[in-house]
Amino acid sequence: MSYIFYSLTFLSLVLATALYLTKNQWTYLIPHPGYVYDRLPSSFSNDIESGLSSSDFDLSANLAAGDSRQGLDQRAKRELQKIMRSRKVDFDEARRIYTEQKFARNNIGADGQPKDPKFVSFS
To answer: In which region does residue 31 sit, left (phi positive, over 0), alpha (psi from -120 to 50) or beta (all else)?
Structure first.
């Protein structure tokens, strides 16, 4: 019985050593999160510094006006930063992707029209 135990222990040590020595050849296959923790900005000035502003979505006017609010929505900021990191896009593109995803969750088409078959619109 001890022969099997010692054999399995030795085999697992050899396997662990082989995996450690060849880790550069197989670690790229394992997905890993880019950042484990990101502190979210809590004011408009921090939002601007974090890259959550652009010429189309300008937060400097809020900052210049002395806006005392906490900044952008925390959940939306987290999602936007996740999209920006994972898809390697800028803020405007991440905002567009986020909006389309939010539309899809609420059964709204990308053009802004509801997908509900019972929807009636009078224009």
So the answer is: beta
Per residue in 7-20, pLDDT (tens digit) is 999 999 999 999 99
In the block, tokens 């010692």 appear at: 6
Dist. CA 40–CA 52, nearest whole Å: 11
Summarised one tens digit per residue, pLDDT across range 38-89 is: 555 566 667 777 777 777 777 777 677 776 666 677 788 888 888 988 898 9
> Would the pTM of this model clear 0.85, i.e. be above it?
no
Q: Which of 22, 72, 27 is nearest to 80 (CA)?
A: 72
Distance CA 7, CA 77 (A): 53
Non-local (6+) Cβ contacts of 63 within 8 A are 44, 45, 48
Cα–Cα distance for residue pair 54/73, rounded to 1 Å = 17
